[in-house]
Amino acid sequence: MTRLTGTALRLTVFVGESDTWHRRPLCSEIVHRAHAAGLAGASVFRGIEGFGASSLIHTSRLLSLSEDLPVAVVIVDTEERVRAFLPQLDELVTEGLVTLDACEVIRYTGRGAGDGDGPGPGARGGTAS
After folding, report:
1. pLDDT at 5
2. Structural domain of 94
3. Residue 40 lies in a domain
4. What is the pLDDT, as a whole number, of residue 119?
């Protein structure tokens, strides 16, 4: 498991839900490439409403406009590893927004870490503390 604490970089990629890369959802391709690159982790968040450079508002509230909802792929890792991954995004993201933010990792643990705190992040049925 990758160890990650302290100063890090958060990479956020905003694309449309209908964006694809070789007939595969673009957000899925980004996640799989991040995994193959050994990055600490990636999560995809589906938006309920938004607009981008096209200025078209996409919303889940109107069926006719819900075909291309916004999606954000968030990746956090060391600055060196995130910056090394950026050339892959140049190839993949032809429309969208890519941002970088400095952040601080307070805790990064997975299931079975043996810390006695119970389920790790993303476990079903756990309680937040």
Report:
1. 85
2. 6-105
3. yes
4. 39
Q: Nearest 5 degrees, angle CA 81-CA 86-CA 89?
A: 135
Domain annotation covers residue 100:
yes
Task: Give the torsion through C-alpha atoms of 57, 95, 9, 47, to 10 deg.
Answer: 30
Q: Give me the CATH number covering residue 73.
A: 3.30.70.120
Give whole-number Cα distances, 79 to 27, 96, 104, 110, in Å. 21, 22, 11, 21
Give per-residue pLDDT as tens, 3-23.
788 999 999 999 999 999 999
Question: Is there a contact between 119 and 111 (Cβ–Cβ < 8 Å)?
Answer: yes
34 CB-side CA count, 13 A = 26
| pTM score, whole prediction | 0.79
Q: Tally the domains of the chain.
A: 1
Question: Residue 58: pLDDT above 80?
Answer: no
98 or 68: which leads in pLDDT: 98
What residue has token string 């990055």? 39
